[in-house]
Design brief:
Helix content: 40-55%
Oligomer: single chain
CATH architecture: 3-Layer(aba) Sandwich
Order of helices and strands: HHEEHEHEHEHEEH
Number of helices: 7
Shape: globular
CATH class: Alpha Beta
Structural class: alpha/beta
Largest sheet: 7 strands, mixed
Strand content: 15-25%
Number of strands: 7
Length: about 250
């Protein structure tokens, strides 16, 4: 039975992603003169996220803290990162943002092509020129009042344990004088089967949006302090979520 259900999940998810690509592709052409910030094409990912999560009987995703999002403000969004499922899960915030994502993801058929069409930010790991271009692109989006989402761990965690954070996003938030919006993901590392394509276990995952951390008063040299404050808040939130499930 798990095998049959898993085939259905992958088939439906694949068809939904293909549909998303064609919707984004045609809207990208039709709205090119009017949607310079790609807000309308980005919104298409919201129904895709709802459908992908809704059609997966193994996923139970809860969203908390949406009241902490002020849609009139622009944020540097900081989230921990656990799996490819994070893409679908984070669209549940219904926020306008641009991902900073590794370049290889943009090559994945349909979903990666959508990222390219919506002008998300491509990162080549270990390439200094690419890293510099990423922060230049992120600055431009922030100046256009579009939030930018970073996974500061730099790679996915295979558990709820949070890795060390890199500095760049925090330097950028201080430089552009933008608040940081921390988002805590829990249990998404189990959402996609590892070493198999068959779903076997039901996963209760959560997205928790924490109150924004203002960057007023932080100078250029305070990025480590800011990083430590945000990471501590995310760790505290994660521990609190875990404690509720015991």
């Amino acid at each position: 039975m798990n095998t049959i259900i898993s085939i259905g999940i992958w088939l439906v998810s694949g068809l939904l992603t293909i549909l998303l690509f064609f919707v984004v592709f045609f809207l990208n052409i039709l709205l090119f003169p009017f949607d310079k910030k790609k807000k309308i094409t980005h919104r298409q990912c919201f129904w895709w996220s709802d459908a992908v999560i809704g059609f997966n009987p193994y996923w139970n995703v809860s969203v908390h803290g949406l009241e902490n999002i002020d849609h009139k403000r622009t944020y540097v969004i900081i989230s921990n990162h656990q799996s490819m499922a994070d893409i679908a899960v984070l669209y549940q915030t219904k926020m306008q943002f641009r991902w900073v994502a590794k370049a290889s993801l943009f090559k994945v058929p349909f979903i990666g092509w959508c990222l390219g069409l919506i002008k998300h930010i491509k990162l080549l790991r270990g390439d200094f020129t690419s890293i510099k271009e990423v922060y230049q692109a992120a600055s431009k989006w922030l100046q256009k009042d579009i939030s930018v989402l970073f996974f500061p761990e730099g790679t996915r965690s295979s558990s709820n344990q949070m890795g060390e954070f890199q500095n760049g996003a925090f330097k950028l938030a201080i430089k552009e004088k933008k608040p940081i919006l921390p988002i805590c993901l829990r249990n998404t590392h189990n959402a996609i089967p590892k070493g198999s394509w068959i779903f076997k276990t039901k996963v209760k995952a959560s997205v928790t949006v924490l109150p924004a951390v203002e960057t007023d008063g932080f100078g250029p040299g305070d990025f480590v302090l800011l990083k430590d404050i945000v990471r501590a808040k995310l760790m505290e939130a994660g521990e609190s979520i875990d404690a509720e499930k015991i």
